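INFO worker-7 received task bundle
INFO bundle size: 2
INFO processing item 0
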Amino acid sequence: MVQAFPILLAPAGSLPAVEAALSAGADAVYVGVRSLSRGGRTGLSPEAVGAAVSACRRAGARLHAAINAIPSSGELPAFLASLHRLRDAEVDEVILNDPGVIALVRREIPSWPLCASVGLSVLNPEDARAYRDLGVDAVVLPSAVRPEEIPLIKKASGLRIEVFAYCRPEFLLHGKCGLTGYVADGDEGRTASAKRGGSCRLVCRNLPVPAAPHSLEDELPVWIAAGADVFKIEGRELSPPAVAALVARFRTKLDGACASSAGG
């Protein structure tokens, strides 16, 4: 199926959430994978990933996998083998957040679409061009990037541009958190970051910072005109009913914005 842009990319932390996102109108769904996403404490099992792919195929949608673990040297063979299994399961695209991993996966699985995660903090045309040269097909921009900056980024790189239509408020640049408490206990008493065996505790939720979510729902026409290709909703931790409600809301808003853009 050839998908027209812009598309609505929905989160799912379980198979019921995948089904909820699809039933609410998502064009694509992204999931975490156990042992490969957020330090291995959340995500679908390999068997569940296969079922999620099948659910997406039935709905005419795509499945993306968010792989934000960063392997050590000794972990690279097993890590790469896991990615080959995801590709064999027909996961459509993988979201990666480490330059070395991007280069490795592009070399070892050359035909697999790759997306540079928001964790890489692509902010300008040169950033985007650098990741394009490493082999990515798309970039997720931090919410600090404004719509007027997108045309230059897109022209310089030729990449697909993903933006967050809905996410936690960004008082620190996405992917650059240095908060105390980000480091958590890992295996065998060792400390590890959220990307290497630990798990982000989201301590930002307890700080006196703005709590209202960042949302583009009333600005979608501006972002469409700027060239955003994918509107992404954050929330793999959300329940299936919450996923369905958010996706349905943005489906209606995005369809209306696209209709207005086409008519104008």
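INFO item 0 finished
INFO processing item 1
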Amino acid sequence: MAREYYYLIAGLPDIFLDQERKDFNLIKLKDEMKEMLHPDDYKLVELLFFEYDNYNFQNFLFERKQEFSPLGKFPQEVYNELEDNLDSFPEYIKSFYLLYKGKGNAEQPEETTDYAGEKIEKNPEVRFQEAFHSYIKQFDNRFISRWFSFIRNLNNVLTAISCRKHNMEIAPQMVGGGELVETLTRSQAPDFGLKREVDYIEPLLQITEVNDIMERERRLDLLKWEMADDLTTFDYFNIERILAFFVKAGMVHRWSKLDAKVGAEMFEKLVKELRETYELPKEFEK
């Protein structure tokens, strides 16, 4: 039976407003939730933060020399002796590292083929994303499954659009397979023939035509925000609602660093939603 967090969710406006608006502390927010959630549910929250661990891991492995993100589960010092700490990481990171370094008995990934049955060579970054999404599939949670499926599909569509603009081959850049990937790979239609299959394809195509990079990113995040809402339409006091909240809080954090004005707007947007939506059932008000 699903766990209900009536008082926690009803109290989210106060928890959220306790944050410093000028330096939104997402780490503090996540740590506070650890004390309030069932351990199994908190693991689902951590999955949403793996994007930062993925960023840090790839930054280390591919020597990108970018700034370390403190939002991941694993601190920077762990990477200084990564091989000695491999067992601390989730299996997909450990296996990918061993495979990339040609060490141990790491399992070889399945060969990818296109719709014509031809083998597709993919770069390590794409393979790593495939390993991550394969790992996510083991978690039996409706929001996690649908959210990461949406993110993978969205990124694949964006990548296909970019490849088409730059006359690059699409198939090697696709994460995963399936009908959507095959359609993106072979279609010559302006919308890739996805109007019926992907309900956000038209607004997404419009977003990609925006020249201003920051505005384009803002609109993409608003599209993701709407999807988080859609995925929790009938969820009120369960972990799915909390997961959607963290997706949005992550966007607020990101924009508080990128653009103070947009960050403030998103902060107020989330505060308004919290106040309007999260109310205790009448029987709990007595």
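INFO item 1 finished
INFO post-check item 1: The longest strand covers residues 112-113.
INFO post-check item 1: The first helix runs from residue 6 to 10.
INFO worker-7 idle
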